[in-house]
Structures are given as C-alpha cells and as structure tokens.
Design a protein that fits this description.
Layout (H helix, E strand, L loop, with lengths): L1 E4 H6 L1 H9 L4 E5 L2 E6 L15 H9 L6 H12 L1
Parallel strand pairs: 1-2
Antiparallel strand pairs: 2-3
Length: about 80
C-alpha cells in the first residue's frame, strides 16, 4: 500500500489515480493519521453463459427425421417446371 498526503491528493491527483490504476491501494493521511484509503474496484469474474442446445430442441420438435435445406429447394425447382 502506498501513502499520499491530503496535499498531494489535492495538488497532484493524477499521480495518485495512476497508482490506483496500477492496482495499488493508496492510504491518504492528514497530519500523520490515515483518514482514507483509495483502492481499485474488485475484479468481477465473468460467468460463462449457458448456450441453448438447438439440436436437442429440433429433435424434440420434429423427431429424428430432419431434412437438409437443399431437398426443399430441389422440390421447389421441380414444381416450377
């Protein structure tokens, strides 16, 4: 943990924030007593999203016989002639 005085925080706030951005906690003191601690926010872990199982959903809706898309296109072309 790094230390900074109230005067340093007032006059050179950029350097104090730079310390915090680096991941350091900064203790702010006034007349030798620590009155505040500035620290970076806690790191949040991203949760992995559970993706839906589309193949299982298709099997449940249409059963085991799922036709590929090109069969339908071939049937349409034969009907147009």
């Amino acid at each position: 943990m790094k230390n900074a005085t109230v005067r340093q925080v007032r006059h050179d706030f950029g350097s104090v924030i730079a310390m915090v951005e680096e991941g350091e906690s900064v203790a702010v003191s006034k007349r030798g007593r620590v009155i505040a601690v500035i620290s970076p926010p806690p790191v949040e872990k991203k949760r992995a999203r559970k993706r839906p199982d589309f193949a299982r959903r298709l099997k449940r809706m249409y059963g085991e016989t799922v036709f590929p898309g090109n069969i339908i296109v071939e049937d349409r072309k034969s009907l147009e002639r």
